Amino acid sequence: MITLAAANVYSQSVLTTPMTDYYTKWKVKLPEKQQYPAFGDSLLSFSNAASRSRKYVIAPFVPITYDTFIGVYEHNKRNPKQVVVVHKQRNPLLTVHGNVMYDLFYQSSVDTPVTQKDVYQHTVQTSLELTYKDNYPIRLNFSTRMGNSSLFRNLTDFNLQYTNRDFKNAMMKKARGWDAGKYAQLEELQQLRAQVEAKQLEINKLKKWKSDPALLQHIIEARERAYYAKIRDSLEALNKPDLRIPDLDISKRKRSDGKLSDLEEKSKKVNESADSVLQRFNDKYAAVDKKIDSLQQELAKLQGVYKQQENIYNIRKNALTDVLARSKNNKELADNLKAMNLPDSILPKGYKHLLAIRTVGVGRLLVDYSELTAKNISIFGAQAEYNPDYYVAFATGRVDYRFRDFIFNDNRTKQHLNLVRVGKGMRDGNNIILTYYTGRKQVYNFNTVSNNGTPSPTNLSQHIMGLSLEGRWQLDENNYIKGEIAKSSLPTYARPVGEHEDAGNGIFKLGDHSNEAYAISANSVLPKTGTRFSGVFKMMGANFQSFSLYTTGSSQTGWALKVDQPFFQQQLTLSAGIRKNDFTTSYQQTNYSSNTVFKSFQATFRRKKWPTLTLGYFPSSQLTKMSDTSYAENLYYNLSGTASHFYYYRGIMMSTMLTYTQFYNKQTDSSFLYFNSKNMVLSQTVFYGRFIFTAGGAIAVNPEYNLYTGEGGVQYKMLSWFELGGGMKYNYQTSFNLTQIGFSGNAKITIPKLGEIAVMAEKAFIPGMQKRLVSSNNGRVTYIKTF
Question: Which residues form a coiled coil (predicted)?
Answer without folding.
Answer: 260-312
